[in-house]
Specification:
alpha/beta, Rossmann fold, 6 strands, 38% helix, binds flavin mononucleotide
Amino acid sequence: MKVLIVFDSSTGNTEKMAHAVEEGVRKAGVDPVLKHVDEASVDEVPQYQGLVLGSPVYYGLPSGKIKKFVDESVKYHGKLDGMVGGAFASAGGTHTGAETTIIAINEMLLVHGMVIQGSSAGSHYGAASVGSPNDASIEACRKLGERVGRLVKKLSK
Ligand SMILES: Cc1cc2nc3c(=O)[nH]c(=O)nc-3n(C[C@H](O)[C@H](O)[C@H](O)COP(=O)(O)O)c2cc1C
């Protein structure tokens, strides 16, 4: 069982978050594969049981590269149904678009029929950070990865 983590990052903040998501997936006993969106191909997505997308907040939304990655995945539309999805985002400020970005990613993954688990214990929609992720944001990313990994295991039974 393996989870693909695809992130965009220009100044390294989302990348730090992606590494913490990776740790969490591994902690759940599932293999994480981490790729910058420039290195990732949609053609590999169907081999995974989970897909977590991470983006900097650009004008309240995911970066164009993350959107393009999802748009290109249309060739697998219908084939990703039931896969586990998740999202994380890095913003420049507080209340300036992290949640709208996470929700936009979740919306796209839902159109693929993916299963997204919310959280009742904070970070309800996914993991967010302001600038370089602090300890709490890193922990939220680890938890996100772990929960995605655990759900992958549950659904693969
Ligand atoms: C084109 C552009 C648009 C941005 N728009 C927003 C925004 O709407 N809200 C916000 O909080 N930060 C915004 N930012 C700041 C980035 O989201 C923030 O610096 C983020 O941490 C960068 O992540 P990275 O280090 O992974 O590239 C913007 C940055 C750029 C370059």
